[in-house]
Design brief:
Layout: H1 66-73, H2 143-148, E1 150-151, E2 157-160, E3 196-201, H3 209-216, E4 222-230, E5 233-242, E6 254-259, E7 262-270, E8 279-280, E9 286-287, E10 290-294, E11 297-305, E12 308-316, E13 324-328, E14 333-342, E15 363-372, E16 379-383, E17 388-394, E18 400-404, E19 417-419, E20 424-426, E21 458-464, H4 468-480, E22 485-489, H5 503-507, H6 509-515, H7 518-527, H8 534-545, H9 556-566, H10 575-584, H11 592-595, H12 613-616, E23 628-636, E24 641-643, E25 647-650, H13 653-657, E26 665-670, H14 689-701, E27 703-705, E28 708-714, H15 717-720, E29 724-728, H16 736-743, H17 752-760, E30 777-780, E31 785-786, E32 789-790, E33 795-798, H18 800-809, H19 812-815, E34 823-828, E35 831-837, E36 845-848, E37 862-867, H20 877-885, H21 890-907, H22 911-920, H23 927-936, H24 945-965, E38 973-980, H25 994-997, E39 1007-1013, E40 1025-1027, E41 1030-1035, E42 1046-1050, E43 1062-1065, H26 1073-1076, E44 1086-1090, H27 1121-1134, H28 1137-1150, H29 1158-1176, E45 1191-1192, E46 1202-1203, H30 1208-1215, H31 1231-1234, H32 1241-1264, H33 1270-1275, H34 1290-1313, ...
Parallel strand pairs: 16-22, 23-26, 30-36, 33-35, 38-43, 39-42, 45-46
Antiparallel strand pairs: 1-2, 2-6, 3-5, 3-7, 4-5, 4-19, 6-7, 8-9, 10-13, 11-12, 11-21, 13-14, 14-15, 15-18, 16-17, 17-21, 18-20, 23-24, 23-25, 26-29, 27-28, 28-29, 31-32, 33-36, 34-35, 34-37, 38-44, 39-40, 39-43, 41-42, 41-44
Helix pairs in contact: 8-10, 14-27, 17-29, 21-22, 21-30, 22-23, 22-38, 23-24, 23-38, 28-29, 32-34, 32-35, 34-35
């Protein structure tokens, strides 16, 4: 049943007078129905006493009606933390407790039935006395307090009600009692419970959690407070949980209290205990939720070596605060709680200057840190002496830290729950006064820190040996949870004296001189000649930030060595930088002995690097494509930052303009600690404010790296949602203001969000084609508007001949297109949108509309983001929900999904099925067509390992999206750009009174034009296209409103037949169609069109959403940089898009009317507001009434927040099993390629060097984008979720990265070949395959030897080589394999076993690569085809394209279909009439 639907919920039962359980009343006492004055009339939760635990005078049995359980389960809300959610299942009071043993600790009590993370006591040392009973209004309480009332906080108080029950004699085993001991001296049952919960009724609806906390916090430790709500409105009921139970009973069934200055009566019931929860370890044994051991002290430090620790700060337990190590087995984490006195550092170091009085802000602060089990590699038990033992916890990166705040300040009026976790706020430092550093730039090195949380990540905890019994119990449990604990002594793991690193004083003389220390000045005197160039110093800080080197290990001698190496630098090579680049490379797989180390990547002796031949001979990266640039990236976390080595990335307008200053740009991304991932928005709480303050400080003060100060520049639009920005280090003549001024004139924009979006437009990833040789003219044309709607929003026009020229002068990815795209998404100065080719436009003209011009900019070159292309459309959860509510039967979706799952399974075994499926289900990057061609070339039949792995990753990716997103691929569909009918032929949408009468009348439907490849056809070939006609479903993702999915009629219009792979919308009517589809426009939005008759809904004319967006706030002055910074941080904190989207799915599933329910309609409007937040600056606020209390199981929320959904999405989710991707790389490489040529040793040697570079670059992409395998990168079928950002459009975002990577190494191999002539190039391609095969053979041989010796890694170990390198030439490999030429080798060649020693002296090879132009683009290539001269300048004014495309051929170009660098390929007959993949598919179907 739907927990949120009023339509199917039974009405509440009428109120009846029934006996109530007299809590705290002696045997024989009863209480009649609660007075109406206490329970508000009309309350659906407590309309009667039904459902409360009740006991008559002579009845010793317990009974319960369903009303109470439903009331309890209806009481929680979405804001409820996981630990405190009521369980959907009923509680059985007769179920025996199966607790085996309990854990406890003084001052820290855990709610054993909770479901939230580990939390510590909210009581500071100064408040301990407040938790003793202060005069309760029940038995044994001072009568003065009864008459005068007990004062709470904020004017809240209570006193006993006159309706107090008389005392009785005797005791009952079921009696909860009025205090810990009743009158017979028998301890009350609830006194032994881990916690008690008081149910409260009769509260004012305006009550807050702070009101209840004020009333009751004096009587015990409150763990949880909840105010019950119904549809977001508080109903006067609540509950308070104490853990442990209070020392005495202070409550009565009826109490008079004062809340917010108003006196009233409330009723209180004691709820039943829950049995102590047991946690099952992987071993199968059960443990309590947590175990704790009291600490004596805590040390922060670093590892000085693999078996030495350097303590840098010690915090001792002085018995005034809580020092506790807790292992939380339910949430699989270690919790360390400690307190320290924050003393003014000027007391110990008078040289520190600050205007504030010394000691003014000294205070005691309690902290805690939470370390997930997954973050722990190993614990080390150290026997210190006869009284003390220690536990060393070394971490590779910082955990999360919290500090305790005043409980009174931890409540929020808007929230209906409070937990003791709420008194713990995130903190990013432990220091005396954070205001001292508020103006400092963010840097790796921090001065005057009490504890450097980001760098001191080895923790040594000290314990008394009296706690060894507790530790033994905890150790057993930890080992059962797969946490290793080594045992040693202080002699085996000694500490070394603390010292401060010298590196920063040496490299930053101004810092040392400012301190004024004689020692530092003497140090500078001895090292004043040490100077590291910026790129060397940047790379050094890369190694430090990533934990490869530690600043404590770096000596002046090491820095001098680097400086000496760098003195011989050339324009192409700096040996110091190359050495540091080498050690910063992503690992190729750790050795078994390294995996046992506490820190396997750490280099403890940096001087040893100069003895490492491989490190010293490392040479620079290969040259990169012209549309890419080297980009430095920095991840800023709450406590530190991580620098990345420069990596090639697709460029943008700003980077191209200032390419001479490319090393002064930084791409910065803000995340939580590296193990946690993104910083989640926190609009309703202040607990995460320290994180957002850290971001604000970084943006405001900048970043210090390598002696340079980088300042905030601007944010790209795609970066914005991923919490990223560009920084720039100014020069004497170029500042951030200069760059922003060059970007364009946006000073007229007074809306901060729009101002930021316009600047961000310049950072779109674009490619700059060659400029027109006869100039370019911008021709303004009018928008087509009607009734306030713009029908041409974002669409302009271009000549077909200019479109041809663009393709020819773009990068290789576009050159491989078989026909000229009909549309291009572009940037031109301050204009954006798409350009569609129309025959009547001259070559040198670009027609733009006012809707495309956003601001004026000096850049006048045309830049291309992407070209139009066809891909198959898919359904998702939102579209399935909408189509289902519009009348599409659920059985349709189920049948489609079942067929798809079965086809994926058959495709793994049957090449014919695989080719059919891949050819029909074309992804947006066209990878499936490449795989289909490889299968047609016979690689699936030969079980070629790479092709089989790509096939497997495609299936795993498809199955994961089926399960997680309900992504059903629709064969009869298209996913394409939208454009407009400039001929005004298509019928538009009209609102008329006759519309209702003409329901489902095709003649009343708006029309579209769509021309797409035939099923199984070859995109780009005229003869392979067809025009869609008939009834279609049209929409745009995400569709959240029933009117977002439209029913249209597709028709054939001869005047539009030149447009392919785009959907053409009408330019007439009362409203444009794109705006009806989730508020879309024509500036590059993708639309799905489906003509499968099974998916045509029965309801055609649901009114589209009319979204009246709130007017954005305009400033009365020019926008400043500080405004941009504030908006950036405000957006990070308040963005609710994902929360609203999840709420919409949950409500649609739960409510009877689904998306048509008014609450879902309201959520759809909020969703639209949230999508517009980056442009309007107005956040969408999700009200409590719209927050779901429970979520359907397919959303994979925590169990206590989940219900089983039986609607369509739940059934689809249940049908699809999880599919793991485990590539089998033991297959044989294809002998057709290995035997084709007799390859010379020199070529193989050169290609091995290129492959080394390829593998390094591939691992760098995997590392930077959080991708586990090369197969996911190559195919863009990424299985892992990104650490930061969403999966939305991840495949699209990876396409330019992967395309640039492939293009880069294609060019390197072509330069090695020296020609694109197939007779020469194909041998190099075969060499790429050969050297990859050799590496695989070598790795398998080593594995076999290790297995025979019963040691070493398995065959699937990460040390196996990467094998995707030759597949940058996937078409050429197919041609080689299927060639009819005879083999030059009679049998497979014998692999040359290549050892690492073969690469230790690469000087000669480096010079050869340099001479070939592989590095930095030198060397000559025999150009077979040149773009210049292909279009005669006399024809530029022609309105017709210069290439004939009617037959799908062009003038003969030497070496057709050789490599991507050719002009336009319009013929795919292949050499010697060989079959293409799609020809083979057609033949198989005969």
């Amino acid at each position: 049943m739907d927990p949120d639907s009023h339509a199917i919920r039974p009405p509440p039962a009428p109120a009846q007078a029934q006996p109530a359980l007299g809590l705290g009343v002696k045997d024989g006492a009863t209480l009649t129905t609660t007075p109406d004055a206490i329970i508000p009339k009309g309350n659906p939760y407590m309309s009667a006493n039904k459902g409360r635990w009740s006991r008559g005078g002579g009845n010793r049995g317990w009974g319960r009606s369903n009303g109470f359980d439903r009331a309890s389960s209806r009481s929680s809300s979405d804001t409820l933390p996981p630990r405190e959610q009521p369980r959907p299942m009923s509680y059985n009071p007769n179920r025996p407790s199966n607790r085996t043993y309990r854990s406890g600790r003084p001052g820290f009590s855990r709610d054993q039935s909770s479901d939230n993370g580990p939390v510590a006591s909210s009581t500071s040392s100064s408040d301990k006395n407040l938790h003793k009973p202060q005069g309760a209004s029940v038995d044994g309480v001072d009568s003065a307090n009864v008459s005068n009332g007990v004062n709470g906080v904020n004017g809240n108080s209570y006193e006993v009600s006159e309706k107090r029950r008389p005392s009785g004699n005797g005791a009952d085993q079921h009696n909860f009692g009025t205090s810990n001991f009743n009158t017979s001296g028998i301890k009350a049952q609830w006194a032994d419970w881990p916690s008690i919960t008081l149910r409260i009724r009769g509260l004012p609806t305006a009550s807050t959690t702070f009101d209840l906390w004020s009333l009751f916090h004096l009587h015990g430790e409150i763990a949880f407070i909840e105010l019950f709500e119904r549809d977001g409105v508080r109903d006067g009921n609540g509950r308070v949980r104490f853990a442990p139970p209070p020392a005495k009973q202070f409550w009565n069934d009826i109490m008079t209290v004062t809340i917010q200055g108003r006196q009233m009566k409330i009723a209180i019931d004691l709820q039943r205990d829950r049995p102590l929860q047991q946690i099952q370890a992987p071993s199968g044994r059960n443990f309590p939720p947590s175990l704790s051991v009291a600490m004596k002290a805590l040390e922060f430090g670093v590892l000085a070596s693999e078996n030495e620790v350097m303590p840098l700060r010690t915090i001792k337990n002085d018995a005034q605060g809580e020092f506790l190590l807790t292992a939380d087995f339910k949430f699989k984490c270690i919790d360390i709680t400690f307190a320290c006195d924050m003393k003014d550092p000027r007391r110990d170091d008078p040289s520190i200057r600050h205007p504030s009085p010394v000691g003014q802000l000294e205070h005691r602060q309690e902290y805690r840190t939470v370390i997930p089990f997954a973050h722990l590699k190993k614990l080390v038990f150290i026997d210190i002496d006869e009284d003390t033992w220690a536990l060393l916890i070394p971490l590779p990166s910082p955990p999360l830290f919290y500090k305790q705040v005043d409980p009174e300040k931890s409540h929020a009026k808007i929230r209906n729950t409070w937990t003791k976790r709420d008194v713990w706020n995130r903190t990013v430092n432990i220091t005396y006064d954070t205001s001292w550093f508020k103006n400092d730039a963010v840097a790796l090195h921090k001065g005057n820190q009490f504890v450097d949380l980001g760098r001191w990540t080895s923790y040594r905890l000290f314990f008394s040996k009296s706690t060894l019994a507790d530790w033994s119990t905890m150790k057993v449990a930890l080992r059962d949870f797969n946490i290793n604990v080594d045992n040693t002594t202080l002699k085996g793991f000694p500490e070394v004296p603390a010292k401060m690193p010298k590196i920063w004083d040496i490299l930053e003389s101004q810092r040392a001189s400012a301190v004024g220390s004689n020692d530092n000045l003497a140090l500078l005197a001895n090292t004043e000649d040490i100077h590291l160039p910026y790129d060397v110093r940047y790379q050094l800080e890369v190694c430090i930030s990533q934990g490869i080197l530690n600043e404590f290990d770096i000596t002046a001698e090491f820095l001098q060595k680097l400086a000496d190496l760098s003195k011989g630098r050339t324009a192409r090579r700096d040996r110091a930088k190359d050495l540091l680049l080498y050690i910063a490379e992503p690992p190729t797989g750790a050795r078994a002995e390294d995996r046992e180390k506490l820190d396997e990547k750490r280099i403890y002796d940096p001087m040893s690097l100069f003895e490492d031949k491989k490190a010293m001979s490392h040479y620079p990266e290969l040259s990169i494509p012209e549309h890419c640039q080297w980009v430095r990236k920095v991840i800023v976390t709450p406590t530190t930052m991580y620098l990345s080595s420069p990596a090639p990335e697709p460029s943008n307008r700003v980077l191209r303009q200032y390419i001479k200053h490319e090393d002064r740009f930084l791409r910065v991304q803000f995340t939580d600690e590296i193990r946690k991932g993104r910083i989640f928005p926190a609009p309703d709480t202040d607990q995460e404010n320290a994180l957002f303050n850290r971001v604000h400080r970084t943006l405001l003060n900048g970043i210090q790296i390598g002696g340079r100060h980088f300042q905030y520049l601007a944010t790209g639009n795609s970066q914005f949602r991923e919490n990223g920005a560009y920084f720039f280090c100014p020069t004497e003549f170029l500042t951030c203001d200069n760059i922003r001024s060059w970007m364009g004139d946006v000073n007229h924009i007074r809306v901060v969000a729009k101002y930021a979006a316009r600047l961000g437009q310049c950072f779109s990833t674009t490619k700059a084609p060659r400029t027109s040789p006869i100039g370019q003219t911008i021709v303004p044309i009018k928008d087509i508007e009607h009734n306030g709607w713009c029908f041409t929003d974002g669409v302009g026009k271009i000549a077909p001949s200019r479109a041809t020229f663009l393709v020819q002068t773009l990068s290789n990815a576009h050159k491989a297109l078989k026909s000229i795209p009909s549309a291009f998404q572009f940037r031109l100065g301050g204009s954006k949108g798409i350009l569609v080719q129309w025959p009547d436009i001259p070559f040198n003209e670009v027609h733009l509309r006012p809707s495309q011009n956003k601001f004026n900019a000096p850049a006048k070159g045309l830049e291309i983001i992407k070209a139009s292309r066809y891909s198959t459309a898919t359904l998702n959860r939102q579209t399935i929900i909408i189509l289902s509510c519009l009348g599409v039967p659920d059985a349709v979706f189920e049948d489609m999904l079942k067929d798809q799952v079965a086809n994926y399974a058959r495709a793994m075994e049957d090449p014919r099925v695989a080719m059919q499926l891949l050819s029909k289900f074309i992804d947006q990057n066209g990878i499936t067509t490449i795989i289909a061609q490889a299968i047609a070339d016979g690689f699936m039949e030969t079980k070629e390992p790479f092709v089989m792995a790509i096939l497997q990753v495609w299936r795993a990716w498809s199955m994961r999206l089926l399960r997680d997103k309900a992504r059903i691929v629709i064969e009869h569909s298209a996913f394409v750009f939208g454009c407009v009918d400039e001929t005004r032929t298509l019928r538009g949408y009209y609102e008329s009174p006759e519309a209702e009468e003409k329901k489902n009348d095709p003649d009343s439907l708006p029309q579209i034009f769509l021309q797409v490849p035939k099923t199984g056809g070859r995109p780009g070939h005229q003869s392979e296209y067809r025009i869609i006609t008939g009834i279609c479903v049209l929409g745009r993702n995400p569709a959240v409103h029933p009117g977002d999915v439209r029913v249209v009629e597709a028709v054939d219009v001869p005047a539009l037949r030149h447009l392919k792979d785009v959907v053409v919308f009408p330019a007439v009517g009362d409203r444009d169609i794109p705006s009806m589809c989730s508020g879309g426009d024509l500036d590059g939005d993708d639309f799905f069109v489906i003509w499968d008759p099974r998916l045509i809904p029965t309801e055609w004319n649901f009114p589209p959403m009319v979204h009246d967006a709130p007017k954005p706030k305009e400033l009365k002055r020019d926008v400043r940089v500080t405004d941009l910074i504030s908006f950036f941080v405000r957006y990070m904190k308040n963005d609710s898009l994902s929360t609203i989207a999840h709420a919409h799915i949950a409500k649609c599933d739960a409510l009877l009317d689904g998306p048509k329910d008014p609450r879902c309609i309201e959520l759809a409007h909020l969703h639209s507001n949230s999508v517009d937040y980056p442009k309007t600056g107005l956040e969408a606020k999700l009200e409590p009434k719209l927050r779901p209390r429970l979520f359907p199981h397919f959303m994979e929320k925590p169990p206590h927040k989940t219900y089983q959904s039986h609607k369509i999405l739940g059934r689809l989710y249940d049908y699809v099993a999880k599919t793991k991707f485990s590539p089998k790389l033991d297959g044989a490489f294809d002998g057709r390629i290995l035997r084709r040529y007799a390859l010379d040793a020199e070529t193989l040697k050169m290609i091995r060097l290129v492959k080394r570079q390829y593998d390094k670059a591939m691992r760098q992409i995997m590392n930077q984008h959080d991708i586990e395998t090369e197969f996911e990168v190559w195919s863009t079928f990424v299985l892992s979720r990104p650490r930061v950002g969403s999966e939305y459009k991840r495949q699209e975002k990876m396409e330019p990265v992967v395309t640039s990577h492939k293009e880069r190494f294609r060019m390197a191999c072509i330069k090695v070949a020296g020609s694109r002539d197939p007779k020469i190039l194909y041998r190099v391609v075969a060499a790429c395959y050969h050297v990859t095969w050799e590496e695989a053979q070598t790795a398998h041989a080593r594995t076999d030897e290790a297995n025979k010796a019963d040691h070493g890694p398995s065959a699937t170990d990460e040390q196996l080589p990467l094998i995707s390198f030759p597949w940058i030439f996937e078409r050429e490999l197919g041609r080689i394999a299927t060639s009819k030429d005879r083999f030059e080798l009679e049998e497979l060649p014998k692999p040359t076993i290549v050892s690492d020693d073969d690469f230790e002296n690469d000087e000669e090879e480096f010079e050869r690569l340099l001479g070939a132009g592989v590095i930095e683009g030198d060397g000559e290539i025999d150009e077979i085809d040149e773009i210049d001269g292909q279009i005669d300048s006399e024809d530029y004014s022609s309105t017709e394209p210069t290439f004939e495309t009617t037959t799908g051929t062009t003038e003969a170009v030497e070496g057709e279909l050789i490599v991507d660098e050719e002009v336009i390929e319009l013929d795919e007959d292949g050499e010697d009439g060989e079959d293409t993949g799609l020809d083979a598919l057609a033949r198989l179907g005969d």
